[in-house]
Amino acid sequence: MKAVCWFGKQDMRVEHVPDPRIINPRDCVVRITRSAICGSDLHLFNGYIPTMEQGDIVGHEFMGEVVEIGPEVKNLKVGDHVVVPFTICCGQCFFCKQGMWSACDNSNPNAWMVEAQYGHSSAALYGYSHLYGGYAGGQAQYARVPFADVGPIKIPEGMDPEKVLFLSDIFPTGYQAAEQCDIKPGQVVAIWGCGPVGQFAIRSAQLLGAERVIAIDRFPERLRLAQQAGAEVIDYSQTEDLVETLKAMTGGRGPDACIDAVGLEAHGHSADYYLDSAKQKLHLQMERANVLRQAIHACRKGGTVSVPGVYAGLIDKFPFGAAFGKGLTLRGGQTHMIRYLQPLLERVQRGDIDPSFLITHRVALDDVPEIYRTFLNKEDHCVKVVIDPWAQRAA
Amino acid sequence: MSEITYPREPVAEKAPDTAHHSHHQPHDNGHRPPWQKTGSTLGSIVAGGALAVYGVTRRSAGGAALATAGGILAFRGIRRASASSAVHVERSFTINRPVAEVFSFFRNFENLPRFMQHLKEVRVTGNRSSRWVAHAPLGFELEWEAEIVEEEQDRYLAWQSLPGTLIPNRGAVEFQPASQYHGGTEITVAMDYAPPAGRGGALFARLFGREPGLQIREDLRRLKQLLEAGEIATTEGQSHGRRSAFIRMVKAANEPSPRRGRPATEEQQRVVGVR
Ligand SMILES: NC(=O)c1ccc[n+]([C@@H]2O[C@H](COP(=O)([O-])OP(=O)(O)OC[C@H]3O[C@@H](n4cnc5c(N)ncnc54)[C@H](O)[C@@H]3O)[C@@H](O)[C@H]2O)c1
Ligand SMILES: [Zn+2]
Ligand SMILES: [Zn+2]
User: Fold this and answer.
1) CA of A365 to nearest chain B CA: how many angstroms apart?
2) Disulfide engineering: A108 pairs with which of A133, A146, B244, B252, CB 3.0-4.6 Å?
3) Which ligand 1 atom lies nearest to the CA of residue A38?
4) DSSP per-residue codes, A181-246
5) Are the Cβ atoms of A5 and B70 closer than 8 angstroms?
């Protein structure tokens, strides 16, 4: 089959590799019908995620048709159409049983690596470094799905794949980001980043009762999408003091909740941004955390800062004093995907939301290496790329 | 955290039939094994009799067998390990299954090779006796007889190798219900290995890297996966694109199963006493 493989920093290639097969009894194999590129993949592309190896198949947002089933998978049959959540969960450990799916104890064969770095390991992910398990990803024609009796959600026949594909990651991720804010009716939520995760966070905050959503980015097409959803928007690149602006917009209080949907590759023009990026270039620090710092400064006393944006290592000048002084609640983490699959599928079916609004680019596998660059640089108004692994390359 | 200790008697000096099998003392703190209070500290393990050079057979095809747990780490550690000291490893894990289930799975030693990667086979030969075969470096196998010396249903289990083993060893495992909130079983495993005298020490050094604890840690992780999830998570055998030469080399060096590699040289055979 064809698969997108990581070959090094800013070097993705389409390779011919052996088709995946069942390895463990709870595996299945899916023929992938749609896949997508995520903002998280850009962290791989830029080499910020350690323990990638040349030849690793990337991609963690995919859906497909079940073509092979391991003997212990009783709830799926060949021919079922499923969306596969990006976290791999055993369903049987303490954490899975508690619904803390992304903390699964048993899915990461390289758990010891994560333990060494973080103290404890968490769920493995598809196509996201050996630290996160080293599983082959879904920017490919087929994928092996471990613990297939737990993760994948069956899609009713006849549903448009583009409406359900984002159940694989960014819709639940944006939803959890908003849910973690514990939004009370009438509250104001500020969201940094109007990428795919930010867009779903905006809409989820509204679904969960926020009175006002303030969305922050600098790309006009992304801000426009936010506006279309009914958010007030701020172009941070045109704003002298974002924290003051947010306070001014909220009667001096600051937003009740702040969501960092940007993560470790934030851009900006503040002093801490330049300091962070210099350190990043010198490999002294992995993160550019200016958004997280801003969110902590802007958030009202006793509010919540919810962090779906990915961070991986150590952050300098983390304003914990401000977080402490204001009594903030900080929440973050990989999404507990399986909690959200069914309820969000139902929301799509009911027509509460049509996730396909995000898609700007539809490509074949052979186009993927090039489109990574387009997506990275936000060229061509690129917001979300969907891959049809069986399509012929556009001429 | 509980610490497991062993009966005071040196392993190898203890005749099998005099091992105090099931003597009970009242425990004062609920679920401590009776020998814990009288036990010697760990690490003061015995080098058992003279270097008994048997129980080592040669495998058909050779290969470095060990590097289970730490992968690259263990692989590097092997060379630096000192051959002169006994090895003690101890590790706890919480397994989200009832104590009785974890105990009975472990009590059937024939299950051990399913999660202890250095073991090739364990055959239960009697109620308390068993015969163990382990992978050793360079395509050798180590064989020994072991016997359960302490046991209380759903509480603890201790075993030791019988005299005549190249690498005298013993193990103990304790089972406790985890906190009420968490549920499941806290299992603590401790193992001691005594180095053989003389040149067998080199083999010993290769068996245990600088961090021998890694192996038991990963063994217990596999046990947990097996009992909770019913299978052991792996990516071995999945597809990938072309690997770099460097990665291929590292992977080959860490190959966990001793299928590849050179057969032992005559010199090596002499050292470990191949039959
Ligand atoms: N927690 C999870 O489980 C999970 C899942 C998916 C994605 N993510 C993470 O969420 C983040 C966003 O993902 P995405 O797919 O939307 O990525 P993306 O790169 O498309 O979007 C990021 C957006 O942030 C904007 N941005 C950069 N600097 C900013 C600043 N200083 N202020 C405001 N906006 C700024 C960019 O212009 C861009 O529009 C990434 O870090 C990704 O890894 C996390
Ligand atoms: Zn993603
Ligand atoms: Zn789990």
Assistant:
1) 15
2) A133
3) 15
4) TTPPTT-EEEEE--SHHHHHHHHHHHHTT-SEEEEEES-HHHHHHHHHTT-EEEEGGG-S-HHHHH
5) no
**Strands A153-154 vs A28-37: parallel, antiparallel or unpaired:** unpaired
Distance of CA B210 from the midpoint of ligand 3 (Å): 31
Nearest CA to ligand 1 atom 17: A39
- Give how far A134 is from chain B: nearest CA, Å: 7
**A94, B96 contact by CB (below 8 A):** yes
Question: B75 lies in which domain range?
Answer: 12-84
Q: Is residue B222 part of a domain?
A: yes
More confident residue, B75 or A343: A343
Q: How many CB pairs below 8 Å do chains A and B form together?
A: 108
The confidence band for B9, taking pLDDT boundaries of 50, 70 and 90, is very low
Task: Give the model's pLDDT for residue B199.
Answer: 65
How far does residue A92's CA lie from ligand 3's centre (Å)?
Answer: 5
What is the per-residue pLDDT across B196-226, written as a single tens digit (0 to 9) for each?
766 677 777 777 766 778 889 999 999 999 9
Which stretches of chain A score pLDDT less than 50?
Answer: none
Same structural domain for residues B187 and B95?
yes
Which of A54, A94, A133 minimises the CB distance to B182? A94
Mean pLDDT, residues B101-115 taken together: 97
Nearest to A93 among B96, B231, B235 (CB): B96
Of A11-15, B78-82, B239-243, the range with the highest mean pLDDT is A11-15
Q: Is the per-residue pLDDT at B55 higher than 50?
A: no
pLDDT above 50 (res B70)? no
**Structure-model confidence comparison of residues B243 and B271, the more confident one:** B243
A288 by Cβ neighbours in 10 Å (0-12 / 13-18 / 19+) ranks as: buried
**Alpha helices, H only, B52-150:** 72-80, 99-107
d(CA B260, CA B272): 20
**How do the domains of chain A map onto residue ranges?**
2-169+335-388, 171-332
Gyration radius (Cα) of chain B, Å: 19
- Per the CB < 8 A criterion, the answer to whether A67 and A82 are in contact is no
Q: Are B43 and B88 in contact (CB under 8 A)?
A: yes
pLDDT at B197: 67
Give residue for tokens 């919480």. B94
User: Residue B119, SS3?
Assistant: strand
Place of tokens 């249903």: B153
Residue ranges around ligand 1 (CB below 6 Å): A 38-40, 42-43, 169-170, 173, 192-198, 216-219, 222, 236, 261-263, 266-268, 290-291, 308-310, 334-335
Ligand nearest to the CA of A36: 2
**B5 in any annotated domain:** no
Considering its fold, how many domains does chain B have in total?
2
CATH of A171-332, one of 3.30.9.10, 3.30.300.20, 3.30.360.10, 3.40.50.720: 3.40.50.720
Answer whether B214 touches A (CB < 8 Å). Answer: yes
Contact residues on chain A for B245, CB-CB shorter than 8 A: none
- A5/B241 Cβ within 8 A: yes
User: What homologous superfamily does CATH list for A2-169+335-388?
Assistant: Medium-chain alcohol dehydrogenases, catalytic domain (3.90.180.10)
C-beta atoms of A55 and B242 within 8 A? yes
Residue B96 touches partner A, C-beta closer than 8 Å: yes
